[in-house]
Amino acid sequence: MVGILTTPPLKPVTMASAPALSATGLVKNFGDKRAVDGVDIFVPTGSIYGVLGPNGAGKTTTLRMLLGIIDPDSGTRELLGSNRPRSVGDNVGYLPEERGLYPGMKAKDAIAFMGALRGLDWKTGRARGEELLEQNGLGDAASDKIRKLSKGMAQLVQLLGSIVHRPDLIVLDEPFSGLDPVNQGRLEELILAERERGATVLFSTHVMAHAERMCDRLAIIVGGKRRYEGSVDEARAMLPMQAHYAPREDGEAVAALLPRDAVRDEDGYRFDVPDGGMEALLAKLLDRGHGIAALSLERPSLHDVFVSVVGEDAVARMEAGAEDEE
Amino acid sequence: MKRFLRQAAVIARRDFLATVLTPAFLMFLLAPLFMLVFATVGGMGARSIADSGDDAQRMVAIADADYAARIEAADTRLRPLFPAQIGPPALELRSSQADQDVQARALFEDESIDVSAVLYDPPESPRILYSPEAASSADYLAVLAEQAARAARLDSEPLVTTQREAIERTGSTIGGRQATGFTALFVLFLLTLLLAGQTVSMLAEEKGNKVIEILAAAVPLEAVFVGKLFGLFGVALLFVGFWGGLAGGGVALLPPNDAAFSTLDPAIGFGPFILLAIVYFAMGYLLLGAVFLGVGAQASSMREIQMLSLPITFFQMAMFGLASAAAASPGSTLASIAELFPFSSPFAMAAKGASDPRLWPHLAAIAWQILWVSITVAIAARAFRKGVLKSGPSVLERIGSAFRFGRAAD
User: Fold this and answer.
1) ipTM of the complex
2) Is B220 part of the contact surface with chain A (CB cutoff 8 Å)?
3) Which of A238, B178, B186, B273 has its CA at 20 to 30 Å from residue A256's CA atom?
4) What's the whole-model pTM score?
């Protein structure tokens, strides 16, 4: 049976909320290589927070430091009010980037085991495990061993294991990686439901669409440094609006009237909306008789912002990597 | 502490059940049975070959009827003095021919008989021929000739008649106590050799299937290590309990023989000694297991783990050797070293229980060993965190950095 979860409305989250997680000046070196270089993060309680960045940007290392799996070489961190992250581990759920379960365990036992590690008793863990599996369309697989499940199913089991103890903070490292679109949708619903329950969710991804749809705030990390921190809207506001204009009467004279950054596409031109707005430009175009066959103004997407922050080459490499993964 | 123990218990429970609830565990549990069967079959075969060889051997006495009767009588009296397995070859009597020397030498060429020694010539001046590897047969024949000559002179009458009375010893002997100590030491060593060495590959599963990241994120690595140690310790206890129960049942079925046990009575008492042996088995297992777990955790592949098994076995043998030397000379400086050195201490102290009636050294030793289990686990977890999880530079990297710094300074 497939459970249906309704998507709750996004709750406004402000920086004034007490942080579920914060870090200042995190630095981590592996040998001569600096993996994380002075990253600051502030995750408001009850928010969904995304950590974006290309492969090798330092996202996973940052998350591992925040959780206390590894210690930073310098910098401070505070998790759920404690500067010793391990001491509040029972209130944290974590899905690592490298998925791992004991192949000989039954699905419900694997969930109960992960809960037991975080202080949940086995009996409750098993009962909740069965319930969660049922809700997420894996009820029939509750007693199947992990080795019998598909990769996507096993990943979902692991995700359920990371939330079975109903933690206050959920940290998911590349949770959408390796999932088919159906399961990606399920995962989005699950994350939103957990936020609705009151949990804070922090996840890393290099898929902009998920972050754009779900995140209250996000950070973009490139080369171990934090390049951006803020809400999705604030990120999109960093770039000017994009205009797409198609004239009725085209010709070289049109291009001369448009801003310098205008780029020709199939049926018109694409350019940034000028600082002074579109009115003066449109008036000029109409006066010269070029007319308006089509005109649209678009806010830049998170992907555009990401490209501008990370660079097109890095994005191309990242997208090629994502395709290989699929 | 409660949280730590709870987390360790979760790991231990998982490891215990994952090990025990598999068909492979049945093979593991019954492995000694296979060993016993093979050893018995092999032993019987070897014994049979040895016996057939022994059965074919003969000592020959060439003598006339009267002399032969006295030799046979002497053999009948002396042969029971030897344990059945090491008695002299069977004696064969042959009547003499014209030339006894030729007759005797011919016997060594005779393929129908495997002669070890031949007695011939008159009783007053007997001669013995023997093959070089059967000098003991020659000695025995010489004694028979001597006894036959005495019997001829005294007309077969014994010189004295001895009154004999059997007395059962009620106290332990020095040799018995040492034997008890060494037996305990050997059993503990054998068990730890069989069981503690398995800990070396315990983290390989988690590293292979990436579960280590989940464990490391959820619980302290020290709890992971302690949980894994106790998980396999539970398996070891099950193994020891199973075979110990069978052995105990077997001993209970034997006819009572108090005398045999009285000589083995350990100085500290049998009950406390058994209890101490169990505790020292636990400590020995945990100490060596923690070392092997820590070393194995650094390995990145099964091949590396296999390579580590040799130095690990050498380490165990070294601890056994040290503790054995201590058991052989209780109270010596070497014994004190073995009792104090953490990784030989459980074995040496188990042996000490057989020869020293005091209890307090054992309590102190157990506390000392628990401390070292904690230290070893802490060091192993730290090394894992640095070396495998890359949380900070490893010891080797620190040494490397210092070396580079030194060269740069040059």
Assistant:
1) 0.76
2) yes
3) A238
4) 0.73
